[in-house]
């Protein structure tokens, strides 16, 4: 897109302190939108908002854990109070897992991944919908994943969470299409972000990276089962890693009037990986 396709519209982008979310927030602003930047990382969220304002657009930052209902209420109240409406919601915030197979998934990892990747966007969407329904229009875009299509792209917790996101998208599209609400998702393949370092403990990152590279574990123990299985599947991925901007462009398109008849779609942005 180019020009001011979102002039006068207000947009919430979660996970906008970095990566895909930051790129999407900047892109919406360039298209004329007023943007609420939401992220757990307060400094990063404020940096994104400042970058938007420095470019001549309007932004406000809200920091907090989006799986906390109080933070969710603050985000929605702030966008309505500051901008007067809510036209677009981008549920992008998420974390990865340690690629663990089910028998090795710890309770804490399962609960954290599901809470952030699935429960948080559910809560925010539920809070946003009344405002969109009252206005008679609204667009919601989720960041799903290649792991929402298949079982060979990540670990158990992440795969389950992204399959859940796909279910949310399809349910929302069916339930609210007659009330002016469109819901879609992008499904990124490999993308150049810092999601791994933001999500895992340093020891788990080291173990995961060593396994994926086929190198010995630092403690001399066996490589974890899940990453060992995933390694061969992920090495056969024929596509290149995308930039955050390429993913953001797909988000902005799905939120735009150009995608007016697209509803309930999960768009692979993966250089053809999902076609293999």
TrEMBL record:
What SUPFAM superfamilies does the annotation carry? NAD(P)-binding Rossmann-fold domains
| Entry-linked InterPro entries | NAD(P)-bd_dom_sf, Sc_DH/Rdtase_CS, SDR, SDR_fam
Q: One Pfam family for this entry, by name?
A: adh_short
Domain of life, per lineage? Bacteria
The UniProt family comment states: Belongs to the short-chain dehydrogenases/reductases (SDR) family.
The protein here is known as NAD(P)-dependent dehydrogenase (Short-subunit alcohol dehydrogenase family)
Give the source species. Answer: Streptomyces africanus
Show the taxonomic lineage: Bacteria, Bacillati, Actinomycetota, Actinomycetes, Kitasatosporales
């Amino acid at each position: 897109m180019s020009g001011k396709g979102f002039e006068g519209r207000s947009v919430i982008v979660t996970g906008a302190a970095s990566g895909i979310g930051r790129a999407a927030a900047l892109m919406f602003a360039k298209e004329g939108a007023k943007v609420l930047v939401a992220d757990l990382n307060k400094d990063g969220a404020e940096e994104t908002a400042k970058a938007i304002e420095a470019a001549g657009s309007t932004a406000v930052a809200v920091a907090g854990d989006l799986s906390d209902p109080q933070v969710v209420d603050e985000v929605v109240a702030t966008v309505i109070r500051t901008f007067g409406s809510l036209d677009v919601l981008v549920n992008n915030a998420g974390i990865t897992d340690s690629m663990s197979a089910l028998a090795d998934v710890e309770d804490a990892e399962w609960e954290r991944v599901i809470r952030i990747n699935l429960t948080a966007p559910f809560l925010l969407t539920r809070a946003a919908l009344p405002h969109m329904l009252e206005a008679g229009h609204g667009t919601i875009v989720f960041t799903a994943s290649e792991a929402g299509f298949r079982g060979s792209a990540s670990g158990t917790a992440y795969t389950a969470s992204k399959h859940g996101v796909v279910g949310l998208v399809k349910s929302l599209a069916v339930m609210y299409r007659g009330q002016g609400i469109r819901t879609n998702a992008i499904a990124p393949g490999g993308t150049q972000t810092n999601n791994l370092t933001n999500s895992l403990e340093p020891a788990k990152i080291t173990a995961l990276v060593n396994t994926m590279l086929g190198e010995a574990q630092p403690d001399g123990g066996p490589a974890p089962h899940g990453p060992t299985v995933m390694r061969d599947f992920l090495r056969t991925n024929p596509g290149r890693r995308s930039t955050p901007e390429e993913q953001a462009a797909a988000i902005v398109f799905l939120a735009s009037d150009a995608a007016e008849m697209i509803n309930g779609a999960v768009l692979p942005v993966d250089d053809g990986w999902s076609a293999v």
